[in-house]
Specification:
Pfam families: HMGL-like. Belongs to the HMG-CoA lyase family. GO terms for molecular function: hydroxymethylglutaryl-CoA lyase activity; metal ion binding. Keywords: Lyase, Metal-binding. The protein is α/β, with parallel strands linked by helices and 310 residues long. The chain has a nine-stranded parallel beta sheet. The chain has one domain: Alpha-Beta Barrel (TIM Barrel). The structure holds 3-hydroxy-3-methylglutaryl-coenzyme A and magnesium ion (MG).
């Protein structure tokens, strides 16, 4: 299999943890609903490819995200895997559903903007934070790891540019609430590297621990890898990505695919940064998933390597 030559660059971490979101962020945005057994095989193959954190599904209202309405059926099919399987929970009802199935990692998801808070959660920003507070408290009391997502950190389709202090304020609220980690979402993919650096600097200047920060880039304008490199240079070691570049967000129309996990692994491998991922198996998984979905993967790396004899 073709692999990049390894040429390390200074000032980068030795290891990166990939938070794989294809089965959730990817499949929530498909027009059709993928059969539960196919989703389960997808998650199993991702684990087999060496991914250790695989976001499995969402315990949201099934009418809001019908693509993931089978969460109760799916989770038990994958919960034996020896990997972390975070699930999205917007409220206590979602947490109850997740805990009943033995989930050990949950994620709440806030918005930096009022427009997206309303569109995605039917709440103002403050109402959404109030909704998460008991979720985080109860999850922590049960020893469950909590991730906080923050969407629209770099731009919003209704409101345009989002001021950095506005983003920092909601980040702080999530961290103060007790979230163990925070994923900074560029939901519509408008960020550029200087903007990423500016937000991360503002957050670490305010006392945020860079170890608790992750980045979640969508590749709408082809900036996701450049933005990732800027984040790594700032000390971030958790990067969200979606196998095959699947993804988007049903409540943010201009959101396209996430950063493709294969493209990320290719870059990190070239930089000599360890991820534990077997690129060959991952590409085969995304090529298989693309067949299930009936269209080619948007990932450059998947396309390049699928065409080569491996
Ligand atoms: P609402 O309509 O305001 O709900 O929606 P409600 O609290 O008024 O409750 C209405 C009914 O829904 C009640 O039933 C509840 O029990 C039920 P009734 O008493 O009328 O019979 N209900 C639920 N049922 C099952 N599971 C639940 C649940 N909650 C309430 N969890 C709500 C509020 C938060 C539920 C809704 O807005 C929702 O489900 N939103 C989810 C949207 C979503 O999943 N978006 C995609 C994920 S975010 C994303 O993709 C961004 C990210 O990738 C980062 C980035 O890129 O930026 C993370
Ligand atoms: Mg997303």
């Amino acid at each position: 299999m073709t692999l990049p030559m390894v040429v390390p660059a200074p000032g980068l971490p030795a290891r990166v943890r990939i938070h794989e979101v294809g089965a959730r962020d990817g499949l929530q945005n498909e027009k059709g609903t993928v059969p539960t057994q196919v989703k389960a095989e997808f998650v199993r193959r991702l684990a087999d490819a060496g991914l250790t954190t695989i976001e499995a599904t969402s315990f949201v209202h099934p009418k809001w995200v019908p693509q993931l309405a089978d969460a109760e059926q799916l989770f038990p099919l994958v919960s034996d895997l020896p990997v972390a399987l975070p699930v999205l929970v917007p409220n206590e009802r979602g947490l109850d559903r997740a805990l009943a199935l033995g989930a050990r990692r949950v994620a709440v998801f806030a918005s930096a903007t009022e427009s997206f808070a309303k569109a995605n959660l039917n709440r103002t920003v403050d109402e959404a934070l109030a909704m998460f507070e008991p979720v985080v408290a109860r999850a922590k009391a049960a020893g469950v790891h909590v991730r906080g997502y923050l969407s629209m950190c770099f731009g919003d389709p209704w409101e345009g540019a989002v001021p950095v202090p506005q983003v920092v304020k909601v980040c702080k609220a999530l961290l103060d609430m007790g979230c163990d980690e925070l994923s900074l979402g560029d939901t519509i993919g408008v960020a550029t590297p200087g903007h990423v650096r500016q937000l991360l600097t503002a957050l670490t200047d305010e006392g945020a621990d860079v170890e608790a920060l992750g980045v979640h880039f969508h590749d709408t304008y082809g900036q996701a890898l450049a933005n990732t490199l800027a984040a790594l240079q700032h000390g971030v070691t958790t990067v969200d990505a979606s196998a095959g570049g699947l993804g988007g967000c049903p409540y943010a129309k201009s959101a396209t695919g996430n950063l493709a996990t294969e493209d990320l692994v290719w870059m990190l491998r070239g930089l000599g940064i360890d991820t534990g991922v077997d690129l060959d198996r991952l590409v085969a998984t995304s090529a298989w998933m693309a067949e299930q979905l009936g269209r080619p993967s948007p990932s450059r790396t998947v396309r390049a390597l699928s065409h080569k004899e491996r």
